[in-house]
Amino acid sequence: MMGNEVLIIVDAVSREKGVDKEIIFQALEAALATATRKRHKGDIDARVAIHRDTGAYDSFRRWEVIPDETEVVEFPDRQYKLSEARQQKPDIQVGEFIEVSLEPVEFGRIAAQAAKQVIMQKVREAEREQIVNLYKDRKGEMVTGVVKRLERGEAVVDLGNAEALLSKSTMIPREGLRPGDRIRALLEDVKSVPRGPQLFLSRVAPKLLIELFKLEVPEAGEGLITIHGAARDPGLRAKIAVSSSDPRIDPIGACVGMRGSRVQSVSNELAGERVDIIHWSENPAQFVISSLAPAEVQSIVVDEESHSMDVIVDEKQLSQSIGRSGQNVRLASELTGWEINIMTAESAQEKGNQEAANAIKLFMEQLDMDENVATVLVQEGFTNLDEVAYVPKQELLAIEEFDDELVDEIRNRARDLLLTRAIAQEEKISLAEPAKDLIEMQGMDENTAHLLAARGIKTMEELAEQAVDDLLEIEGITEERARELIMTARAPWFENKQAG
After folding, report:
1. Which of 210, 256, 327, 490 sees the fewest Cβ atoms within 10 Å?
2. Under a CB-based contact definition with an 8 Å cutoff, are residues 207 and 189 in contact?
3. Which of 358, 399, 357, 393 is nearest to 377 (CA)?
4. CA-only gyration radius of the chain, Å
5. Residues of the chain predicted below pLDDT 70
6. How far apart are CA 322 and CA 326, in angstroms?
7. Which residue(s) pair with 39 in the sheet?
8. How far, in Å, CA of 262 to CA of 277, rounded?
9. How far apart are CA 234 and CA 274, in angstroms?
10. Burial 288-305 (b: 16+ CB within 10 A, else e)
11. pTM
């Protein structure tokens, strides 16, 4: 093949496939090198260099330079030991090549076929690379595409310049997509892989709902309305929390639109998903009350420590506030980030009575006080020893039935008990001395070894017998760390097995 023919091929493929010319030159060089190797009988190595300006090419036979210490030269037809190579080229290094010119091979039918295959492979790789580069910064954005085909319950979506996969798990259940349907989806992931899909879509992500509202509601798109979050039961129901910094704008009204036009557009895009639009509040209790709409709330008890709320509703409102299969309360919980317990006034009273009875029993047993004093403490809102021991003294003195002497006695008893417990805990940890093999085990540190020993796990053998869940109860140990420690402790089992 003449030089100008090479240039014509490179130019044509580059234009048609939108691939860099250098990639095609390299593909042709690889194909010509393969053809050159095939023409010679021995197991030779060859390199072909195409002149980028003229298209002419030079061929070389080459030998790789290997260390002198190599006992057996594995490929004598294409390898030289360093000392032999230095007789021809004194400054050559291991890993470099000795080259000798060869007569260039004619670019015949076999070479053309090989070149075509290599070029097509390079073109495909380059196209895939281009797709990744085009979309990698768009991860988390909403995209529009047309369903091209359905394969094993998954949909291949044409985005115009690339194909993306909408898997079964990220489709809206029972949506029934068909080829030709135009859909919007969230670009959830972009992966650079040699084969298979690279772009992954989702129609179930809560963020898709937020992006659709930004598209349908100009005020949200411009930032006049803030969308704080969304929770979805895909295809059935969703909740979205909104607020506005401008008092003149009604965020809920703007999102609903004239005669419900805006929210209807979003619902239609998501296979008829019903959307509740909720007014966001920085007050968590108010936010939870709003999120449970349309159910009406009578009262609410906030437990900051467990990050949960007991929501009391009228008996008639109970089923509506929980929703079908717990849907309403589940979505409200996801949206607000609080664990929500729905109950009637009666069950709340029962729960309160039970908790009060438990607290009275605790004070009577542990502080050795009579029932009347314990009952007064509980009625005043005290539920545990820490509160009794460390609340400002004035708060206890404010209780009508309590005098200075009684308050001091109660506080001292509570503090002594807490102190005794703390000392006992420390003694338990210090008494539990881990064995030498556990402390010196690979990946172990002294603190973890003592924590394990305090739980009765003192040797490597005892650690090997544990399950991952057993170690998760120990403070500071993650699932991954637990698995690593147990597998290290079990290593001798496998060694003994192999030895046997």
Report:
1. 327
2. no
3. 399
4. 37
5. 1-3, 106-115, 194, 196, 345-349, 381, 425-432, 496-500
6. 5
7. none
8. 12
9. 10
10. bbbbbbebebeebeeeee
11. 0.58
